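Task: sequence design from structure.
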């Protein structure tokens, strides 16, 4: 039986750490505030928004939704992001993606000020992840993976981590963050040959491909730690990860469940970044 790396103990610890920081900010008249920018009413955006609002409320972070019509022109979204940038009462911003196809998503990600880019979507934030600079924040999911490993005291230095997936949201940034922690990282993708063998050779495997239960027992070996980042629906409409949990859990040493794993820590990471952004803004005001 593998150790179950649940997200809840991690988010509880994060809440304990955030509470005094939020209290200090509020006592100084600063209400840590997260803007959520959404275009249209996509069910997965709405669901994530509800989760984020609930988590924010439980921590004492205020959420300010900015909702645009799904056919709103790019100028309207740009103006919204500008007003977020200029609003001293907003400290962080989460923009739901993918944006509609007629919008230049890269340009909109870069329109957000790195100070408020709590999900690492701007080039400046991403560049910081790759160059070990301190600007902006890393993408929340990548940061959640590292936090999960740290919480459960999984050693990183000198260990072989295989990351499957090379997106800018998860695969690439988490690889860089683990490299910074002295892990030896192999990044795999859809063209990788001998993927199963490479995965079996790792100490830690991070699956972030978006393919429901695609990683079976043949991809793993005893003692490994497995982070399942995937959020997918199977053919019956059930929520599941990239890993075939029932097959893999008896094989490996430790594994995150879906739901209740990386996803829940990601939401708390958004709040942690927002609080850090509020603290930085308050500090800048004092100077
Ligand atoms: P993405 O942009 O679609 O990237 C998927 C990656 O998986 C790509 O690099 C792709 O390779 C690789 N891939 C696809 N098929 C593969 C295969 N057969 N073998 C090996 N690699 C393969 O997805 P994403 O945004 O990174 O998200 C990945 C998953 O994480 C999704 O299920 C998403 O819902 C989930 N997610 C979860 C959270 C959370 O908070 N838990 C947050 C964000 C995303 P190529 O580059 O070669 O195409």
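Answer:
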């Amino acid at each position: 039986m593998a150790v179950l790396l649940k997200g809840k103990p991690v988010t509880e610890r994060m809440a304990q750490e955030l509470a005094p920081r939020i209290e200090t900010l509020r006592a100084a008249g600063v209400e840590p505030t997260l803007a959520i920018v959404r275009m249209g009413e996509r069910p997965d955006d709405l669901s994530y928004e509800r989760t984020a609002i609930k988590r924010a409320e439980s921590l004492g972070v205020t959420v300010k939704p900015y909702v645009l019509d799904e056919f709103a022109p790019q100028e309207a979204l740009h103006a919204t992001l500008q007003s977020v940038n200029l609003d001293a009462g907003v400290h962080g911003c989460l923009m739901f993606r993918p944006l509609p196809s007629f919008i230049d998503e890269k340009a909109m990600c870069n329109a957000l000020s790195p100070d408020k880019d709590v999900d690492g979507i701007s080039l400046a934030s991403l560049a910081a992840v790759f160059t070990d600079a301190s600007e902006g924040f890393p993408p929340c999911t990548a940061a959640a993976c590292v936090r999960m490993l740290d919480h459960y005291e999984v050693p990183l230095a000198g260990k072989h981590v295989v990351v499957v997936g090379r997106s800018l949201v998860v695969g690439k940034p988490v690889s860089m963050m683990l490299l910074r922690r002295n892990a030896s990282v192999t990044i795999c993708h859809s063209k990788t040959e001998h993927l199963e063998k490479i995965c079996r050779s790792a100490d830690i495997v991070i699956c972030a491909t978006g393919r429901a239960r695609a990683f079976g027992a043949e991809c793993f070996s005893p003692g490994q730690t497995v982070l399942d980042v995937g959020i997918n629906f199977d053919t019956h409409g059930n929520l599941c990860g990239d890993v075939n949990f029932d097959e893999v859990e008896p094989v490996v040493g430790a594994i995150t469940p879906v739901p209740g794993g990386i996803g829940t820590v990601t939401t708390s990471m958004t709040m942690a970044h927002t609080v850090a952004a509020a603290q930085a803004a308050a500090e800048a005001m004092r100077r």
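The pocket of NAP is lined by residues 141, 164-167, 169-171, 188-192, 195, 208-211, 229-232, 262-263, 266 (CB under 6 Å).
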